[in-house]
């Protein structure tokens, strides 16, 4: 009975999350704040009203846990001045054809923030 219950729980559980990395290269002279936004859900990384801060000229790898196949877009802005944006921006409302990727287990996506 217990084995049948455990098997049923395993079969009805949601899909396992994938662990991947986003490698950010900030080639701008300003520090930037960056967030990642799911196009398939309301999920935001890092979440909780936090952002990834990347110093001028710095490179940073940020780990995320996402659903395999999930569409994720990035938005960045000058730290302290969200009127200077790249990607989908701080509110995930700017058009962008080159700032999205698909979640895949054990993969790395590179984001280049050019001047």
UniProtKB/TrEMBL annotation:
Keyword Signal recorded: yes
Assigned keywords, A-Z: Signal
Origin superkingdom: Bacteria
Secretion signal span: 1-17
Protein name per its UniProtKB record: Mlr4654 protein
Record organism: Rhizobium loti (Mesorhizobium loti)
């Amino acid at each position: 009975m217990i084995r049948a219950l455990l098997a049923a729980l395993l079969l009805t559980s949601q899909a396992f999350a994938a662990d991947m990395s986003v490698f950010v290269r900030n080639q701008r002279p300003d520090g930037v704040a960056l967030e990642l936004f799911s196009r398939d859900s309301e999920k935001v990384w890092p979440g909780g009203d936090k952002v990834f801060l990347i110093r001028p000229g710095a490179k940073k790898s940020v780990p995320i846990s996402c659903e395999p196949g999930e569409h994720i877009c990035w938005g960045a802005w000058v730290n302290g001045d969200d009127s200077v944006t790249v990607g989908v921006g701080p509110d995930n409302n700017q058009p962008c054809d080159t700032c999205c990727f698909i979640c895949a287990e054990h993969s790395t996506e590179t984001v280049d923030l050019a001047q």
